[in-house]
Amino acid sequence: MINVKKSRGDKVIDFFIYVILAIMMFCTLYPFWSQVVISLDGAGAKSAAYSSGFILLPTQLTFDSYKLAFKFDALWMGYRNTMVRTALGVVLSIFFTAITAYPLAKKDLPFNRTFTSFILFTMLFGGGTIPSYLLIKQLHMLNTIWSLVIPGMIGAFNVLIMRNFFRSIPDELEESARVDGAGYLRIFTQIVIPLSKPVLATIALWVGVGHWNAWFDSMIYISDPNKQMLQIVLRKIIIQNNMADINSVIQHIGNKSEFSGRQLQATVVMFSIIPMLIVYPFIQKYFVKGVMIGAIKG
Q1: Which residue range or ranges hold the ABC transmembrane type-1 domain (predicted)?
Q2: Could you say which of 186, 245, 270, 298 would form a disulfide bridge with 182 (CB–CB 3.0 to 4.6 Å)?
Q3: In whole angstroms, what is the distance from residue 268 CA to residue 276 CA?
Q4: Per-residue DSSP letters for 21-41?
């Protein structure tokens, strides 16, 4: 290994780069950490929830706010609906994106450029909110999970990324399989898909995070309170500051602690973030490889 001696100017530049990266890391992590501290702090006048300054550690570590959130039925209803939406959306999106991208990866496909141009067109132009709502209504999909899953089931960007990844697979593998008598379906399911785990995991992560965080389509298409997503429940608590449901839970369980609205808001925010924090480390190892190969190969 060759050690290259850096000049004074290079060291100064490296110093400023590290400072900028440290500031960016702090700006990214501190809002998350402050919510963790507030959600874990005890009730009382000295609680971090009442502090307007820098929040580092809780004054009194307690999990009472999380115990309270476990008894909040609306939160778990939103959890259930969002988990069903995310799981269904990821499975359908991966399946239909893959069967769309695989034919486009074949350069000898008739009208390949025309089909690709139609897909690119959807990245630049959309129908708009009102026409989309009227279409969903005419299809009788209002107040159903399909109104949240089907419209974004196939994303043009995801198709292009997956198509480019499929093109990076050597043609010799498919040719040898065809010599042995395998058809396109068998090649796709037994050769292409097993080799495409990085890009499949990457697309699954993008689609899953998108469905988990989505709220606007649920607000438009879903009017039944029992079918609302988790993000709509959080919106009512945080943005609309609607604490009536949580206060009724406090009275129902006879909790004598005086939780502030900010503490309970931080707790439900943490409940919404935890699933993504658990899933992401298992997919991260595929993420960079899937993005790089899918973006570079053409």
Answers
A1: 79-280
A2: 186
A3: 14
A4: HHHHHHHHHHHHHHHHHHHHB
